[in-house]
């Protein structure tokens, strides 16, 4: 699917470069900086709160998602992510497990924000620990999820699911 940006590009000059593609879901973002593991990358500042989820939204709480109006929209999924999206702080951090290098693809683990996904897909990230089908945290094994940093709203929904016997 192709998306026409409605925001001024680049939205994060000196930080993010978008690599366009004419292939469906083929565009992606790369880092223009190197940062240590766990470092602050940027804040999510330009967005609209929405009640309905789509392939282009990020879940911000159990009931609301955000549609990001910046080049952060081009952060793709990876089972070996370079970034973490902390939606309680509207902050993007470098993954706690590894440093970010200039030229790295900017990715995050979708189930870290998405309890249920509007558009599940078969992952092609080629990571050694690739999880295959990505459909949200609610459909993943607890052992697989423990490998990742998860947003508070995802952790809460997982606890509620477990206490309900799911």
Describe this structure as you would to a colleague.
With 166 residues, this protein is mainly beta. It has helices at 142-145, 152-163; strands spanning 16-19, 28-31, 40-43, 47-50, 57-59, 65-68, 76-77, 83-86, 91-94, 107-108, 121-122, 133-134. It is globular. The mean pLDDT is 94.
Question: Topology of this structure?
Answer:
Layout (H helix, E strand, L loop, with lengths): L15 E4 L8 E4 L8 E4 L3 E4 L6 E3 L5 E4 L7 E2 L5 E4 L4 E4 L12 E2 L12 E2 L10 E2 L7 H4 L6 H12 L3
Parallel strand pairs: 7-10
Antiparallel strand pairs: 1-2, 3-9, 4-6, 5-6, 8-9, 11-12
Summarize the structure.
With 166 residues, this protein is mainly beta.
* pLDDT averaged over residues: 94
Arrangement of strands in the largest sheet: 3-9-8
Helical content stands at under 10%
Low-confidence segments, given as residue ranges, are none
Strand-residue proportion: 15-25%
Key attributes of the depicted protein:
mainly beta, 2 helices
């Amino acid at each position: 699917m192709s998306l026409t940006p409605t925001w001024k590009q680049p939205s994060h000059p000196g930080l993010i470069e978008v690599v366009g593609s004419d292939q469906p879901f083929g565009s992606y973002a790369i880092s223009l900086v190197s940062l240590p593991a766990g470092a602050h990358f940027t804040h999510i500042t330009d967005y609209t709160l929405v009640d309905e989820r789509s392939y282009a939204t990020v879940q911000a709480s159990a009931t609301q998602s955000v549609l990001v109006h910046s080049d952060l929209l081009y952060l793709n999924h990876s089972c070996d992510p370079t970034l973490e999206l902390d939606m309680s702080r509207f902050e993007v951090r470098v993954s706690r497990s590894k440093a970010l290098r200039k030229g790295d693809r900017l990715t995050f683990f979708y189930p870290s924000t998405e309890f249920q996904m509007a558009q599940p897909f078969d992952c092609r990230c080629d990571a050694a620990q690739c999880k295959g089908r990505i459909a949200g945290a609610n459909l993943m094994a607890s052992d697989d999820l423990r490998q990742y940093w998860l947003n508070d709203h995802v952790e809460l929904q997982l606890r509620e699911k477990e206490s309900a016997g799911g």
